[in-house]
Amino acid sequence: MTGERPNWNQLLARLNKLEKENTRIKYLTLSVLFLALCAVLVSHSLLAWYSSSRSKAWNSNALVATFDSVEMDEAGVLLFYYIVENKTGSDYTLEGEVRSLVRDRRGQRAISADYDWSSIDPPAFIPRKQRVRVSIKNTNFPDQDQPIVQSVRTKERIAALVQKHMSGTDGFVRLDPVSRYQIEFPRAW
Fold first, then answer.
1. Domain spans of the chain?
2. What is the DSSP string of 148-161?
3. What confidence score (pLDDT) does residue 104 get?
4. How many whole angstroms separate alpha carbon 100 and alpha carbon 63?
5. Which of 162, 140, 177 lies closest to 67, judged by CA?
6. For residue 122, is the peptide bond before it cis, meaning its omega torsion is within 30 degrees of 0?
7. What is the pLDDT of residues 17-66, one digit of tens each?
8. Cβ contact 29:36 at 8 Å
9. What predicted TM-score, i.e. pTM, was given to this entire model?
10. Which of 52, 154, 169, 182 is such that its CA lies 20 to 30 A from the CA of 141?
């Protein structure tokens, strides 16, 4: 055989070169897979955050209030009575603070940002598909120590006093952030 003998050094050099290229391809493939996985995780996290940050709409039909009467107790505290109907399939306890509904400059209804010392007192348990009489206690009306307030006891006088001092109020609202219920107590005085 007169042919050339294989040069082992050249073969080893070629083999090393192929191994290095294979290693680079492996690293490049792993890097691309890692970046793709990171992109999927980031997009999934953003999607989950976006969907959880979008709040559900307020349900204003779950509990419906109808005005019943307004009275004043011995201490001069106004009590607004409403009949509240629970239209849900679950029992509900109505309690806590209520805000005033007012009209803005454009005549649109808005919830007062100021705390007006009104609350549901005592808390009312409303069984599912039932109606219950609920009182909203307004302890900041207008000044309980004034003699005019202490002397007012007839329904006509109470109504006149409420008309005078609550003319800008369009009713009350209770927002339950857990159940997402918006319970409106309409003005009817």
1. 1-54, 63-186
2. HHHH--SHHHHHHH
3. 59
4. 17
5. 162
6. yes
7. 878 888 888 888 888 889 999 999 988 888 877 766 566 789 999 999 99
8. no
9. 0.64
10. 182
